[in-house]
């Protein structure tokens, strides 16, 4: 019964590989395609090209795949869990939570002063702050959603968290220095290119933990498509499944925001694009499909952000919004057909 | 009656249902002693707000009983784990399913969840039982349709097929005929009667279609403000139980025709 999905999957895998190569071929330094292939097998003469590809472009391309697929999957999890086609890490305020954590660390560090400040603004403290922030917001959303049955209210609460974040950021920025402000603004642009191989490894390990938890929830996710009462009557342990899905989501969305900044719309738009292509809600199909789709779209967005043949790099967050926002509008205007 | 038919699938002992709040227990109905036998179609009737839903919610473990015990196949429902209970009792609820993007086959196949492995793969046995559910409910033509493309009557048949695929001794349906036209009301209840007979499953449903229930059910449970009485439709008619169902100023039960008529 899964045979009809063979061709779409093969095409997606092919596209992922193609855009992976396109992505590492592009950049401010132009490197001939043949040399790119050579560098991948490890025999290239030009050492600076080798360095650029190995330490900059390859980790960036891998980061793009992890970010795109991870955000897509966390969006899918939330849409199923909250029974709402508009759920996603950005809409539910999880990215705002991460931003708030980072704002407190970068902008608030001035308030602590001295040696403490330099410890606080290190890369790892930003990662921890973003993860904590997103986890706390997701927890808050979860507590509210267990009391408020209305899923619309949950989305509004997500928006409110966004407002609180920007308010706190305004207050903090009033008191912080220009350098701190710049650091925060640049973090907010989102960036895929700042990760060393070591950081990428840690990112990958946490990401894998989130994915493993997601895969273990496939059956529960499919049962939840019927609604919670039916799911319980089919023998699903609701509390446990819900907790696993929540932790998987905050691991994925939290670490991604921590390492790559708040990247908008990917989490919301990718699952919908995938459903348009695969015409199914079965998570056994959707999960791998969202993984591939998310990776491809993120590689494309990053390639565009490189502004091929120029020296400039656009903020990745702007590109994903430019692509994601129209998708959301398109979904809303076709509301009759909006499913999850 | 053969021995198989005498086997009691659902039994309540001195059950009282209702809600507990800070002020104390709000008892909706008490001293409920009912026993449903294998292969019976049982209708639960009563006026609006009399507590049919509360009773069904208690029988399906959505809420706790205030007092008394409920047994499924002679084992207290409190002693079942969720998965074990899912193999004994399946439900058709009034609420809409969360995602209508499922295909009819996928929806019916979800009924096999209590039996499938960790990722939900269907075995040959699972496929066979799903196929039977399709046959019994006569929905094979709908197999690949999406749930959002179905009419209310079709969707109800699909939900019944899903409950059948769960392969439980007891199926409980909460008002399966609301929102349906007269033909489909009769169709669904007739289908339930056929299923109880052919599959030997015990089917309990709540309904406002008293006329139809009298004609089709093996037994009925009548809830009035004072008591909960069960028996065969004939017994209940001759005991005059249906007369107590509603205030008598507007409609009255005619014992000879087995119907309610409007007072003129």
From TrEMBL, chain A:
Signal peptide start-end: none
Residues that span the membrane, as ranges: 7-31, 61-78, 90-112, 124-145, 152-175, 200-222, 243-270, 285-305, 312-332
A GO biological-process term: siderophore-iron import into cell
Molecular functions per Gene Ontology: transmembrane transporter activity
Lipid bilayer topology: Multi-pass membrane protein
Pfam families: FecCD
Name of the protein in question: Iron complex transport system permease protein
UniProt lineage: Bacteria, Pseudomonadati, Bacteroidota, Flavobacteriia, Flavobacteriales
From TrEMBL, chain B:
UniProt-listed InterPro entries: AAA+_ATPase, ABC_transporter-like_ATP-bd, P-loop_NTPase, Siderophore_ABC-ATPase
Residues annotated as domain ABC transporter: 10-250
One annotated GO biological process: iron ion transport
Alphabetical keyword list: ATP-binding, Cell membrane, Ion transport, Iron, Iron transport, Membrane, Nucleotide-binding, Transport
Protein name: Iron complex transport system ATP-binding protein
Subcellular localization: Cell membrane
Bilayer topology term: Peripheral membrane protein
MF-aspect GO terms: ATP binding; ATP hydrolysis activity
PROSITE patterns per the UniProt record, alphabetical: ABC_TRANSPORTER_2
Any one cellular-component term (Gene Ontology): plasma membrane
SMART domains (UniProt xref): AAA
């Amino acid at each position: 019964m899964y045979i009809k999905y063979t061709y779409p999957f093969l095409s997606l895998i092919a596209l992922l590989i193609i855009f992976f190569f396109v992505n590492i071929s592009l950049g401010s330094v132009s490197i001939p395609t043949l040399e790119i292939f050579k560098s991948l097998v490890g025999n290239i003469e030009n050492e600076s090209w080798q360095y650029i590809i190995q330490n900059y472009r390859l980790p960036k391309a891998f980061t793009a795949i992890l970010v795109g697929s991870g955000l897509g999957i966390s969006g899918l999890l939330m849409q199923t869990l909250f029974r709402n086609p508009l759920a996603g890490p950005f809409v539910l305020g999880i990215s705002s939570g991460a931003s708030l954590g980072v704002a407190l660390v970068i902008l608030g560090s001035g308030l602590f002063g001295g040696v403490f400040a330099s410890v606080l603004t290190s890369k790892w403290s930003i990662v921890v702050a973003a993860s904590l922030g997103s986890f706390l917001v997701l927890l808050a959303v979860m507590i509210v959603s267990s009391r408020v049955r209305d899923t619309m209210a949950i989305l509004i609460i997500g928006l409110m968290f966004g407002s609180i974040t920007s308010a706190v950021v305004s207050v903090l920025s009033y008191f912080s220095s220009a350098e701190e402000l710049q650091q925060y603004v640049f973090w907010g642009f989102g960036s895929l290119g700042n990760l060393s191989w070591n950081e990428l490894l840690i990112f990958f390990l946490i990401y894998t933990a989130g994915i493993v938890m997601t895969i273990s929830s496939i059956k529960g996710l499919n049962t939840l498509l019927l609604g919670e009462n039916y799911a319980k009557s089919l023998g699903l342990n609701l509390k446990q499944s819900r907790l696993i899905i929540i932790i998987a989501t905050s691991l994925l969305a939290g670490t991604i925001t921590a390492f790559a900044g708040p990247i908008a719309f990917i989490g919301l738009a990718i699952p919908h694009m995938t459903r348009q292509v695969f015409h199914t809600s079965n998570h056994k199909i959707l999960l791998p499909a969202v993984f591939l789709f998310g990776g491809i779209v993120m590689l494309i967005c990053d390639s565009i952000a490189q502004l091929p043949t120029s020296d400039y790099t656009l903020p990745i967050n702007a590109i994903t919004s430019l692509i994601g926002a129209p998708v959301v509008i398109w979904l809303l205007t076709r509301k009759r057909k909006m499913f999850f | 009656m053969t021995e198989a038919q005498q086997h009691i699938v659902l039994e309540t002992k001195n059950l009282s249902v209702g809600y507990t709040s800070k002020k104390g227990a709000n008892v909706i109905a008490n001293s409920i002693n009912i026993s449903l036998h294998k292969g019976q179609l049982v209708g639960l009737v009563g006026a609006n707000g009399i507590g049919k839903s509360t009773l069904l919610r208690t029988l399906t473990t959505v809420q706790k009983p205030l007092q008394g015990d409920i047994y499924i196949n002679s084992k207290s429902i409190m002693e079942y784990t969720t998965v074990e209970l899912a193999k004994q009792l399946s439900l058709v609820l009034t609420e809409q399913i969360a995602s209508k993007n499922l295909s009819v086959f996928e929806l019916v196949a979800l009924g096999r969840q209590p039996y499938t492995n960790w990722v939900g793969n269907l075995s040959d046995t699972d496929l066979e039982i799903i196929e039977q559910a399709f046959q019994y409910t006569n929905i094979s033509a709908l197999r690949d349709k999406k749930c959002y493309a179905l009419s209310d009557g079709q969707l109800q048949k699909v939900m019944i097929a899903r409950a059948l695929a769960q392969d439980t001794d007891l199926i409980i349906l909460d008002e399966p005929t609301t929102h349906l036209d007269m033909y489909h009301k009769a169709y669904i209840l007739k289908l339930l009667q056929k299923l109880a007979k052919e599959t030997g499953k015990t089917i309990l449903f709540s309904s406002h279609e008293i006329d139809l229930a009298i004609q089709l059910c093996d037994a009925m449970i009548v809830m009035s403000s004072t008591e909960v009485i069960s028996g065969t439709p004939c017994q209940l008619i001759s005991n005059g139980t249906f007369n107590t169902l509603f205030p008598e100023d507007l409609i009255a039960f005619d014992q000879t025709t087995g119907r309610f008529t409007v007072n003129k």
